[in-house]
Amino acid sequence: MKRQRAEAAGRKGELAAELYLRAKGWSVLARRRKTAVGEIDLVARRAGVIAFVEVKWRKRTEDLGFAIDEYRLRRVAAAAEAVAHEYAQNGEDLRIDVILLAPGRLPQHIVNAWQP
């Protein structure tokens, strides 16, 4: 039951992140893009940039600082590398972003969160 609640909260977080990105002028190209090496929560495009976005939702703002780490970012980067050719056109820049969400606060968008 706990896993189901976490899954539902994650989906709500991804929807909130998608709405946030759209409000900022991004086009969302894919949701929950699965690859052989992992999943990408959102793939978005704006002004010559393709962002592979990891979304993290926490019940408490204090927990957001622990929501993302190098291991998780490395997995998103590997998944992005596996499918980047499907989204990048005409030399668009590619990057890994993170959106952190918690109740009662605006989304925190971390641009280019992964730089190997």
UniProtKB/TrEMBL annotation:
Transmembrane segments: none annotated. This is UPF0102 protein A6F68_01993. Belongs to the UPF0102 family. HAMAP family: UPF0102 (MF_00048). It comes from the Bacteria. Pfam families: UPF0102. InterPro entries: Restrct_endonuc-II-like, tRNA_endonuc-like_dom_sf, UPF0102_YraN-like. GO terms for molecular function: nucleic acid binding. Gene3D superfamilies: 3.40.1350.10.
